[in-house]
Design goal:
Structural class: alpha/beta
Shape: globular
Helix content: 25-40%
Number of strands: 15
Order of helices and strands: HEHEEHHEHEEEEEEEHEEHEEH
Largest sheet: 9 strands, mixed
Oligomer: single chain
């Protein structure tokens, strides 16, 4: 969705449609719960990282954190994603050599940074099956999004919310909610990315920019302070990126785009001479869609999730339960 939530009269006009959406969603959940609709478990632990709102909320950085955490605890994680924005006909691996149009933008970033096999496809059950056939060493799966993909049975559900919270509180299409906020009571953990909810706190950190045409050329925020700078972001909340830059002392001209925007080179010209204008600062997610057009004045800011240590402690306890059950089986 291009807008976080509908406002005023339009929201109320769409409210009946939201009621219908909520009824169908609840009926679908019930159908899986009472086994009218079939669900499957892949036979290894499944951790779903999702949200109850439309649009990004910081799920992918948390998935990267989980992959590193799991590897540090002796697990061999695989990552599964829908591949949003791409037409993936059959399950397939996503690698750094792929185009975002083929596998989605987030899977490429996950592949580059996680060190784990990353597979994509709409049917997450089939994707995990294909992933395990290609990588038999994988003993745990982290699902990037998919909280509402009930066909896949899961062992842990982690919901991520950001500063936008619940918007106007309405379900789609009148508001941003995929499921009512009461759904948070049934998840195993809530991670609060500056959200107005109780949960394990998460922050995104990053202050080193990489030149797109030469990744070895790295600069700190001081290199962009006090000069004309453009910032472009096609993420769930572009304002989050702009606020992050402001905290680094960079007063950028802001250019927000819709989430998963299919960037073209001309989107970033901003009326200046291509490649020779003011610096353009980009999110890592957006940069993967612009690699073929990289210009010397484009810079990328990778970010890393820092999570409340109590979340790691909780996760260790749950992982130990998995291992005990596996040994007893």
């Amino acid at each position: 969705m291009r807008h976080w939530y509908r406002r005023g009269l339009l929201a109320w006009l769409l409210w009946p449609a939201s009621l219908a959406y909520g009824f169908v969603a609840a009926l679908r959940r019930l159908a899986y719960r009472i086994h009218v609709l079939k669900s499957e478990h892949p036979g290894i632990p499944v951790i779903v990282v999702g949200n109850i709102t439309a649009g990004g909320s910081g799920k992918t950085p948390l998935v990267l954190w989980l992959a590193e955490f799991l590897r540090g605890k002796g697990w061999h994680p695989g990552i599964v994603s829908r591949g949003y924005g791409a037409r993936v006909e059959v399950p397939r691996a996503a690698t750094i050599a792929d185009e975002a149009s083929a596998v989605g933008d987030e899977p490429i970033m996950l592949s580059r940074r996680s060190g784990c096999p990353v597979w994509v496809g709409a049917n997450r059950v089939a994707v995990i099956r294909a992933l395990r056939a290609a990588h038999p060493e994988v003993d745990i799966v982290v699902l990037d999004d998919g909280l509402q993909h009930y066909r896949l049975r899961r062992d842990l559900e982690i919901a991520v919310l950001d500063a936008r919270g619940f918007g106007n509180g309405f379900l789609l299409p009148a508001g941003p909610l995929r499921e009512p906020r009461s759904r948070l009571r049934s998840v195993d953990a809530v991670v609060s990315h500056d959200a107005p909810v109780e949960g394990y706190a998460m922050k995104l950190h990053g202050s080193e920019f990489h030149r797109m045409t030469d990744a070895t050329d790295r600069r700190g925020p001081d290199a962009f302070a006090g000069q004309k700078v453009h910032a472009a972001a096609g993420i769930g909340d572009p304002g989050r990126f702009f606020r992050h830059l402001a905290r680094l002392g960079i007063a950028a001209i802001e250019h927000p785009f819709p989430d998963h925007h299919a960037f073209r080179a001309e989107d970033l010209d901003f009326g200046e001479r291509p490649g020779e204008g003011a610096p353009v600062l980009l999110t890592e997610k957006d940069a993967v869609k612009l690699r073929r057009f990289a210009r010397p004045n484009w810079w990328v800011l990778p970010v890393t999730a820092q999570v409340d240590p109590a979340f790691g402690d909780w996760l260790i306890r749950r992982l130990d339960e998995f291992r005990r059950r596996s040994k007893a089986a």
